Structure formats: C-alpha cells, structure tokens
Amino acid sequence: MGNENNVVGRDYIYSHRWGIAPSIAFGLGKKVSFVLEYFHQNDNRIPDYGVPVVYSSANAIGRPVTEYGVKRTNWYGTTYDQDDSSTDMITGRLTAKVNPILTLYNDMRGGIFHRYFSASQEACSNFSSGATLTNNTFNGVSPSSTCQSDFFSSNPAAAQVARNGGVGGPEPYRQSDWSIQDVFSGVAHLKTGRIRHEIIGGFDIEYVTDHRQNYAYGSNRPGTSLLDPSPAVPGLTLGDCNQYPNRLVNIGNGVGRKCYKNSDALDVGFFLSDQIWLTNYLSVKAGFRWDNWNSHYSATGGSTATPDVHYGQNETTINPSVSIMYTPRSNLMVYFNWSESTTPLSMYVTNSSEPLNSKSATASPERSRLYEVGAKYSAFHDRIGFTAALFRLEKNNSIQTDPSTGDISATSDQERNQGLELSASGTLLRNWMFYGTYALYDPTITKAGSTTSKQGGQIQYVPHNQATAWTSYEIAPRKPWNMTIGGGITWRQGVWLDQANTARVPATVEFDAMVSHHFADHWKVAMNAYNLDNRLNYGSLFSNRVTPSIGRSFLFNISAQY
Questions:
Q1: What is the pLDDT of residue 159?
Q2: How do residues 323-335 score in pLDDT, each as one tens digit?
Q3: Closest Cα partner for 85 from 124, 44, 36?
Q4: CB atoms within 10 A of CB 5
Q5: Residue 477 and residue 517: Cα distance in Å, rounded?
C-alpha cells in the first residue's frame, strides 16, 4: 500500500504512507488451522491543529476565526512540526474444531510502535471589547504581540493590518511502545433438553508499555499573523531535554518540567456469555466481562525544581449485559439490549500525555449504562431493509480530554444521551440503490461535577440532529456504454465545543457525488467528488480550536479485478 496526498483547503498539510500486510494460512479446511499475519506501516504527515476559537465583544459565544472571514487555508504551525510513526504487528490465529459441539480459538498479537511528534497550536482565544485578544499564552509561552482588536473590524483598511497571535503547543517528544495480547476463547453449541445454547467464554491478557522522551525549544516561539501566517520561525532552536531542562512543558498537577515519562499497564480479563433459545422465535443472551487493570506511571529527569513522581492504579471492573431477541417472522426482529461498561484511566497509558496524576490515580472509573430497544424489518422480498432504535446512554464520572495538553481526566460529570436512530437501505427499483439514516439526540449534562461544565447543558460534540442520504443508479449495467452515477448529502447540526456551552461550530452540510464505468470485463474507472459546493465545514473538534474539513476535491481512480 502506498498513499501520498495533500489536503484541499489547507496549506502545508500532507500525508505520506506506505505499508505491507502479508499473511499465510496452514490447514485450511482442516479441523486445526493457523493463520500468521504481519503488518507494517510508515506514516509521515504534518499535524493539523486547525484554527482557533475566539470570543468577540459582539458575540459571547466563541466561534472559529474562519467564521469571521479568516482564510480556511491558514495553518499556524512551524517548520518543526512533524508526525512520523512506524508500526509493526505480528498476529497468530489458531482455530481448533474439537468436535461438533466445541470450537476453540487463540489469537496472539505483538506490536512495536515508534513515533516522533511535534505540533503547534495557535493561542488567540479571548477578544476583549475595545482592546486586544487576551489570554494569548499557551503552556507558558508568551507571544511577542497580540491579536489586534481591528481583527473584527468592518473597516477594510484596518483589515489589512497584520494581527499576531502566539503559537504554542505540546513540546516535541519521541515515543517508543510495545505490547502483547493473547485472547483465548471457546464457542460451544449444545442443548439442554429442548433448549439450545450458544456459550462463549475465555480470557484476555494484555500488557502495554510506553516510553517518552521530551524535547524543548531554546526560546519562545513568537507570534504569527492570523491573516497571513508563516511557518518560518527565525532563531528558534530545538534541543535535548537535558539541554533545556527549564524550558520543558510543565506537566501540571504538581508535576514539573520532566524529561522522561514512562507508563505500563497489565489487563487480565475473563468473559462469559450464553445465548438461550427458549423457542424458535425467542432468545435471551446474558453475559459479563471481568477485568483487572494494574497500571504505573512516572515522570522523571529534567528540571530539579520539582521532584520526580511515580503513580499507580489498580482497578477491578465487571461489566454485565443482557439482550432479548424476538423474531416472529424471518424478515422481522425486535430486540432489547442492556449493558454496562467501565473505563478506567489505566487504559490510556499509551495515548495520553498524562494518564495519571495525584488526583486521577485515585479517581473512580467512568461507568456507562446503555438501554436500547429496536427493530429490523426487511420488506418487498428483502429488497429494502429498515431499522429503528430508541436508546438511552447514561454516564457517571465521564472522562474528558484536555484539548491543549491531551491529558485525560475524570470530571465526575453525569451525562445522559437519549434519542432515536432510523435507517433504510436497499433497491428502490431495478439498478437503483438508496441508503439513508437519521438520528435525533437529546445529549444533556445531568450533573456538573466539574467547574468547567454546565448542568443542564448540552454534551460537547454531540448534535441534536444528523442525517445522511445516498443514492446511485446503474445505467445499462451489462452494455459497453454502462455507467453508474450517484450522489448524496451529509448533514450534522451545529454542536457545542465545551461542556460549559460557550463555544460552538455551525452545521455541517456536504454534497458528494460519483460516476464510474466498467470496460474490458475486468477494468473500472471512477471519479468521486467531495464537498461539491466547497462549504466551510469542520472535522476535528476541540474546545478551543477546530480543523476545517476538506474543500471541493475530486479523486480519480482506475482498478482491475481478476
């Protein structure tokens, strides 16, 4: 696999990837079979931290600066920004059919991951009436100048003035991880009297370790123009953490500027479920998963102003689930699901810059409870399928990710998201395919346990409404002049960017289309078009910044199948 691309509508952003994934299987069709898989991928890209969210004197609700006329193409990074990673994984899958009743499985995977990461974030966030955009610091880095108040001016002459904001961001780091996991399971099909059973049980053991070395800049990164940013930063130097120990990022929560961060976690889990067919039409499935997470985290070296820290967390969780499925006809199923899940902070030792601290090491895990009732129906001789579901998801002690530092923390918030999800797909007429979804959500913070949350407010990033629709039609599918054309729309209502409901992005509306043609029996040529009206949408969302989505773009491809 190889891929190289820029991003339409964003300056300087690119992604270069290549990979290989061979596999070999032994004993295919036999009672005992084994599959060995290898995966390698290199990824070199420029990280895109998007554009800042600002608050103007005329609007108390924060909005992306691009909503005030700043170019969507603006990128506020530096020439040091880079995200270079390498992943290697080996997986072995063993299957043994012991007898007609019992089949055993054992999957083992080992992986090694290396990454060098350096990114920049723009700092302008607050606009004070008649003055400047304040709060221009990020991670202790002060900009050389401020975002001028005429940034919001309607005066075209004033709009020509350079407006500057600080450029900060997490200091660069080099990451080295490895992990190993083994999942052993058995599936048994048997009867007790007239009752059929499908019993699934097994254990899951996983160990992950993470080592990070931080780097530091020898001087402050100065500001850059919000309207015409430049990635060049004259005089900025990057050094080893021991070279500039006092310029390392302050981790916070009593932890100083440290050079090395090391963490590891061991998870031992057991799972068991049994699906029972009480009749040919009614079945009940019940099960649970038990886990013990034992994790450790330390921050050492670097500045001697604060001592090294060592934290640990040991969490035991049990997550039950129950499902009831009723199939009165072959084309209709009605179901009910209830399940609980637990997410301890111990799970994030490899993908958080600070998974544990003096507070979170003793924090309770996030606990979620899901209730869902729904139906699946196939109509018109299985040409069209319909689904409908009502659900309610409750969370206690919800976990949040700090957009500035990447730290994951327990907020003690209580959240509830409930709503309706509908979908329909199938063939309306011969050669005419349709797919559509609609979701209505009521995402509410039922109890604000955090000072940055708003009780009764809307959960961040979750819209009240969203929908998708896609249709395609094949013209003369078995003729030399065959053609397939299609088009669709994706819509998501505007969402809040923070739990306090003080920053918001507008709705997403994207029109896409495609056309393709088959020729010479095995060949196909196609063109996909994205965001046809070049609308300013937003993809990655954070509480103080957002990333503009891809602009109008076209992808041509040719393929052969034999």
A1: 31
A2: 999 999 999 999 9
A3: 44
A4: 14
A5: 9
